[in-house]
Structures are given as structure tokens and as C-alpha cells.
Specification:
The structure is a single chain. The chain is of the alpha/beta class and 281 residues long. The protein folds into 2 domains: 13-188, Rossmann fold (3-Layer(aba) Sandwich), CATH 3.40.50.150; 196-272, rRNA adenine dimethylase, C-terminal domain (Helicase, Ruva Protein, domain 3, Orthogonal Bundle), CATH 1.10.8.100. The chain is 35% helix and 17% strand. The protein has 11 helices and 9 strands. Strand 5 (102-106), helix 4 and strand 6 form a beta-alpha-beta unit. Helix 7 (199-210) crosses helix 10. The longest helix has 14 residues, at 250-263. It is elongated, with a radius of gyration of 21 Å. The two termini are 26 Å apart.
Length: 281
């Protein structure tokens, strides 16, 4: 949940940790792109520490809270504010808005991947999402320049601009987590770098490219290109064939995919097809 604890120590089920200071929540909201024209979906409203600054900045706020006790507090607190609608529900089972919207929330660390997947794969994704998550997860999702590119970052970047917007310390939370946190910003690209119809092929290509742990680019992409094609691409895109997949930049991976989509023979496409489904769960 993304809110002030007010001295109450909630059990950190699913990795939930409350922001300790209301001033911090207000400061985080100030970093967002939320304006009076926006509908904001808040994930895990808690007791409303984030809801209040969001309501002051946004046109409408859908404050989603799964805990009935906190939902009751929110209804009482915002009963006179028509801009705030409290929704008592599990976000992962909630129907998302059918109009443009933005997202903010301090999400349970253990459910970060599910929440990011739900938002980014929605029929109508948010324009922006500001999520407080575990620092390690933020780095994995953001990739370069804050960390090496990962399967998670590369699968998102054709459609999302991703930044680690702010680091947070353990003392910013109650109860304090065992790890540091960060606010992750995902901004939907107005012009995707990969066409929607090519999205399944792109994701399969990236999954195949990462292959088994410890493999080189030469080994992981050996079935996607001929030796000559791969050597030429390594020269043109300026990467080493013995590099690990995570050592290549997003731009290099995008260049590889565009070449694959243009040059790949049917047998190469078949080798890549279904690679996403074969990833370990």
C-alpha cells in the first residue's frame, strides 16, 4: 500500500510496507505528470496519505484498496470529496478504466511483476504509471542506464519509456523492509518502436535471445541467423559475439530484431516461435 502508517504496524503480507511520512507521499505526487485533466487509478490507497495529494492534483481518483478496514477509513475521510471514489477490490481482479488514465501506487513487493504485467498488457494501458517497488525489481524492469538490460526491461521498452524516478530508503517505510525501494516510472510511448502485430514475434525473439543462463549472444542467436548474418550484425551494431545478452543495449536488441524480421528464413522463425512460452515460470 502507498500511504502513511499513522503509527499502525500492518503485517507485511505479500511484501506490503507503508510509507512512513505523509510529506514523502506528497513529494512523490509532485514528481508525477498528474494534472487536473487526469483520471488516476491509485493501487493500495491505505488510509489516504497519497489519495489526498492526488485528489488535490487530479481531476478524479479511483482509490483501490483490498482491505475492508482501510476502505472504510477512506470512505469516511473522503465522503465529502466528489473527486475521490473508493473501490474495495483486489487490483489484479479489477476492471481497468475504459478511458485514458494514469496510475500511482506503492505496490506489494511480492506482486510487482503481476501488477506491471497487468498494466502493460491491458487493452487500454495507462498513459503513465508511478509505482513504488523494491529497488532490485525497479532496476530489473528499467534496465539501462541504471542497470544491465534484462528480459523484463527489453520486453517492455518498445512500448514504454522506463525510468527509476527516485530511490527510497528502508526508513521511509513502516514496517521497514529488508531491502531498499524506488519509484518506477513507466510512460507509454505515443509511437511504439515495434508494431502491435509484430509484438508476439518480438517477445519470442527476445526470449530466445536470452536463452539459457550464461550463454553468449553467438550461442543464443545461432538458430535465428546464419553465421555470416550474425557476424555482419555484430559489426554493424557494434557488439561482441561473445558478449552476454544483458551486455547489449536496447537499441542493439531492437536492431537485431528488425534484421530478424526482415531476413529470417522460415526455419529460423520456427526456431524462435514459442520461446516466450518456454521460459521458466
Amino acid at each position: 500500500m502507498f500511504g502513511q502508517s499513522r503509527g499502525r504496524s500492518a503485517p507485511p503480507a505479500l511484501g506490503q510496507h507503508f510509507l512512513r511520512r505523509g510529506a514523502l507521499a506528497a513529494s512523490l505526487v509532485q514528481q508525477t505528470s498528474v494534472t487536473r485533466q487526469d483520471l488516476v487509478l491509485e493501487i493500495g490507497a491505505g488510509e489516504g496519505a497519497l489519495t489526498r495529494p492526488l485528489a488535490a492534483r487530479a481531476g478524479r481518483v479511483l482509490a483501490v484498496e483490498v482491505d475492508a478496514r482501510f476502505a472504510a477509513v477512506l470512505r469516511e475521510q473522503f465522503a465529502a470529496d466528489p473527486r475521490v471514489e473508493v473501490v474495495e477490490a483486489d487490483f489484479l481482479r479489477l476492471a481497468l478504466p475504459s478511458e485514458p488514465y494514469k496510475v500511482a501506487g506503492n505496490v506489494p513487493f511480492a506482486r510487482t511483476a503481476e501488477i506491471v504485467r497487468r498494466l502493460t498488457e491491458a487493452w487500454l494501458p495507462p498513459e503513465d504509471a508511478y509505482l513504488v517497488v523494491q529497488l532490485e525489481a525497479a532496476q530489473r524492469i528499467a534496465g539501462a542506464p541504471v542497470a544491465a538490460e534484462s528480459l523484463a526491461s527489453l520486453r517492455l521498452k518498445p512500448w514504454w519509456h522506463i525510468e527509476l524516478a527516485r530511490r527510497l530508503g528502508r526508513r521511509d517505510f513502516e514496517p521497514p523492509p529488508d531491502v531498499d525501494a524506488a519509484m518506477l516510472w513507466l510512460a507509454r510511448r505515443p509511437r511504439p518502436l515495434v508494431d502491435p502485430e509484430a509484438a508476439p514475434l518480438y517477445r519470442d525473439f527476445i526470449a530466445a535471445g536470452f536463452g539459457r543462463r550464461g550463454q553468449t549472444v553467438r550461442a543464443s542467436l545461432g538458430g535465428a541467423f546464419t553465421h555470416r548474418q550474425l557476424a555482419r550484425l555484430a559489426h554493424d551494431l557494434r557488439f561482441r559475439l561473445d558478449a552476454r545478452p544483458s551486455e547489449l543495449s536496447f537499441d542493439q536488441w531492437l536492431g537485431l530484431f528488425r534484421a530478424f524480421a526482415l531476413l529470417a528464413a522460415p526455419r529460423a522463425r520456427q526456431a524462435v516461435h514459442g520461446a516466450t512460452a518456454r521460459l521458466p515460470r
